[in-house]
Structure formats: C-alpha cells, structure tokens
Design brief:
The protein is mostly beta strands. It contains one helix and nine strands.
C-alpha cells in the first residue's frame, strides 16, 4: 500500500489561501490538495466540490493551473460528463496525475456547469475571489 504526503492544500476552512468562488456558480471548490506518493514521488491533484444550488449538477468543466518551484507550470482540465452531483452534496473527482512534484501553487477555476434547466459559464476575464462575508453560500455547504 502506498503512503502519501500532502504537499499543497488550499481550502475554505482555514488554510492560508482559499480556492475562491465566482458569484452565480452552482459549484464551490471546497478544497484543492496535492498529495505525493512517498515511494514513487508521483503527485496527484485532489479536489472537493460542493453543489450549492437547488438542482443536480449533471456535468461540469474546470481547469487547474499548477505552478512548480522551477518556474514550470501545467494546466489540467476535468470534464466529467456524468457527475450527477445532487443539491447540497459534495463531489470528489478521481485524482489527477501531475507532471511535477514540487508544487508552489494551484489555482482552480470552474469554467462551466450543466444543470437540467440551466447552463452556467464563467465570464471571460473573471477570476474566482474570496466568498463575500454574509453570502448564503456557506449555509448550503455539506
């Protein structure tokens, strides 16, 4: 059995940095984590997402930009077509293998969300920001 060590973490529960959220987006990125296999050195991107809307999230597309100590970067996209994330539930996509192992930062952005009655798309040029204090988002988290 492999042993893993967390080498990067960003979350909405007290980490130094928060993954952020774009107003109107039905998915909230709760946590971004990179774990390294201590035997092989291989790193894996792990995500925890929450459906903060009142409708099922059928599918979504997100992008993670990973920065490394040596100045290199990598962009990873996730596009599960059958996510089926129920309202007020969390979703943990399968871990994604990364090219490098010395991570300095990971920025995750939800690009689109498909629901039965609506399609949500990130606005060009917008970026996730801190969840505004007093926003109903935190009350819906599971």
């Amino acid at each position: 059995m492999a042993n893993f060590k967390v080498v990067f973490r960003s979350d909405n529960q007290g980490a130094d940095t928060s993954p952020g959220w774009e107003p109107g987006c039905p998915l909230l990125v709760n946590a971004v984590q990179v774990s390294r296999n201590t035997d092989t050195g291989q790193c894996y991107l792990q995500l925890k997402l929450s459906n903060i809307s009142g409708a099922t999230v059928d599918s979504f597309k997100l992008q993670a930009d990973v920065s490394y100590v040596d100045g290199a970067s990598e962009t990873v996209e996730l596009n599960p077509l059958d996510a089926d994330v129920q309202p007020a539930k969390t979703h943990r996509p399968e871990p994604v293998s990364l090219a490098g192992s010395q991570i300095t930062n990971v920025i995750v952005r939800v690009l689109s969300v498909s629901q039965p009655e609506i399609e949500w798309h990130a606005e060009a040029g917008s970026e996730p920001g801190p969840i505004p204090v007093g926003t109903d988002v935190s009350a819906r988290l599971n």
